[in-house]
């Protein structure tokens, strides 16, 4: 097979066409709609499904399948009764930095909407991750993540009440928890362990983030420690798979 030198870096080889050359109708429509997306640009309105079906001489269901995939990939978005070209995905660095910093670097306004802040006796499974004894109180802070007022994720933070006893009174739930720890309490972060997986949101999570339950989500688990190596926080963060990608820098072998 000849390598397609004119295609964009990172694109599927031969645009995803199998060696036998037969491709599903919806995929052919998807490729043509992708080219149309490039022509329209961000915010452009896609023609109605009926018009696309007539243009490409396929059924409306074939068009719907192509559009569904492009929506899941984040290239299109529903707006009212129409479909528009979505903006580029936000890039979040895989680093010990806050969500706030990552969004600001891309020229967007970060925000958080408080869902709940409550304390409860720490279960045994969570004790080691928060540096507490089972039964000791821990905070659970749950917030919807915003970028320019758009809901893009859901964050749950667990932290020992002993470490941040006045969290409910002092903390602005719309601001960065990292900044609060560092600037108000003088806590410096040391290192963290992260694990990333792809999941589907629960019905409650999908409602809070404002996405269909079938939309793939990127789930990050983070265990953070302070500069002395003591457990600090346990964070579970859901990001919309159609609006986020993650980046990191890899050094060569030491």
Please, could you describe this protein's structure?
With 254 residues, the chain is of the alpha+beta class. Helices cover 27% and strands 33% of the residues. It has 8 helices and 10 strands. It has helices at residues 25-40, 49-56, 60-72, 99-104, 124-130, 167-170, 177-184, 203-209; strands at residues 76-79, 82-85, 90-93, 110-121, 137-147, 150-160, 189-200, 216-226, 231-240, 244-247. A 6-stranded antiparallel beta sheet has the order 4-5-6-9-8-7. α1 (25-40) crosses α3 (60-72) and α2 (49-56) packs across α3.
Offer a concise description of the structure.
By secondary structure, the protein is of the alpha+beta class. The protein has 8 helices and 10 strands.
Nearest-angstrom radius of gyration? 22 Å
How would a crystallographer describe the biggest sheet?
Answer: 6 strands, antiparallel
Total number of beta strands: 10
Silhouette: elongated
Rounded mean pLDDT score? 84
Which strand order do you get reading across the main beta sheet? 4-5-6-9-8-7
Task: Report strand %.
Answer: 25-35%
Distance between the termini: 37 Å
């Amino acid at each position: 097979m000849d390598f397609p030198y004119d295609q964009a870096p990172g694109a599927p080889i031969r645009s995803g066409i199998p060696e036998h050359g037969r491709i599903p109708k919806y995929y052919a429509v998807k490729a043509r709609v992708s080219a149309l997306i490039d022509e329209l640009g961000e915010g452009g309105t896609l023609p109605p499904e009926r018009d696309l079906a007539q243009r490409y001489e396929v059924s409306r269901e074939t068009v719907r399948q192509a559009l569904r995939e492009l929506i899941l990939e984040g290239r299109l978005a529903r707006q009212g009764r129409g479909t528009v070209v979505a903006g580029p995905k936000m890039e979040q660095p895989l680093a010990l930095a806050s969500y706030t910093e990552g969004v600001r670097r891309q020229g967007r306004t970060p925000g958080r909407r408080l869902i709940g802040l409550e304390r409860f006796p720490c279960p045994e499974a969570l004790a080691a991750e928060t540096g507490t004894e089972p039964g000791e109180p821990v905070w659970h802070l749950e917030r919807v993540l915003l970028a320019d007022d758009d809901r893009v994720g859901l964050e749950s933070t667990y932290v020992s009440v002993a470490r941040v006893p006045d969290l409910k009174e002092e903390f602005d739930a719309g601001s960065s928890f990292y900044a609060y720890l560092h600037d108000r309490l003088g806590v410096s972060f040391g290192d963290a362990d992260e694990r990333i997986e792809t999941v589907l949101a629960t019905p409650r999570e999908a409602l809070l983030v404002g996405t269909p339950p079938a939309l793939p989500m990127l789930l990050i688990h983070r265990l953070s420690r302070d500069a002395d190596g003591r457990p600090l926080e346990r964070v579970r963060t859901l990001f919309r798979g159609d609006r986020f990608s993650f980046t990191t820098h890899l050094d060569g072998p030491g």
